[in-house]
Design goal:
Strands 1-2-3 form a three-stranded parallel beta sheet. It is built from five helices and three strands. It has two domains: about 5-110, Response regulator (Rossmann fold); about 115-165. Helix 4 runs parallel beside helix 5 (about 145-165). The chain has about 170 residues and is mainly α.
Length: about 170
């Protein structure tokens, strides 16, 4: 459990500065550091310190002396928040991996289609099937068709014509 307790007044760096530094080091959603639940425990119970601490990024603020029952329930809340952040982080990482894998597969497929023309035939065949369902099997021929594409299209038209004749 990543939990940080800090007093407001400390040597070298006060709690406000520590909280800001921790939040800056987490790096947001793609950060390498896990989320840290930050709690101020201080004798300064005034509203101004509370608001400043929460604006700095604190998750909770306790005043001394700390009631043990209150501390127990606040630790339970901290555990729930940290668990949710871990689940979210795991899900986000899984989505990033899946997205990258899909992107690479799409790039590979697009590259293969552009080199072989397979994608054009597949698209042409699916549009021809739609035309067959409506009773017309006329395929558009383009001036840029290669010999193999033209042959494929003629074979498909013959098959469709045979289907209608039979």
């Amino acid at each position: 459990m990543h939990l940080r307790w800090s007093d407001w007044r400390m040597p070298r760096m006060n709690g406000f500065e520590l909280c800001k530094a921790i939040r800056a080091g987490e790096g947001g959603d793609r950060g390498t550091h896990p989320y840290t639940y930050f709690v101020f425990v201080t004798a300064s119970g005034d509203k101004a310190h509370f608001i400043e601490g929460m604006h700095a990024g604190a998750d909770d603020y306790l005043t001394k002396p700390v009631d043990l029952d209150e501390l127990e329930v606040r630790l339970e809340a901290a555990r729930r928040v940290i668990t949710l952040y871990r689940r979210l982080s795991t899900s986000n990482e899984r989505l990033r991996r899946d997205s990258a894998r899909s992107f690479r597969a799409a790039r590979t497929t697009a590259s293969l289609r552009s080199r072989t023309g397979v994608g054009s035939r597949r698209i042409w065949t699916s549009s021809t099937r739609a035309r067959v369902d409506t009773g017309t099997a006329i395929a558009p021929l383009s001036a840029t068709s290669t010999g193999s594409r033209l042959t494929t299209m003629l074979l498909v038209i013959r098959r469709v014509t045979t289907c209608f004749a039979g």
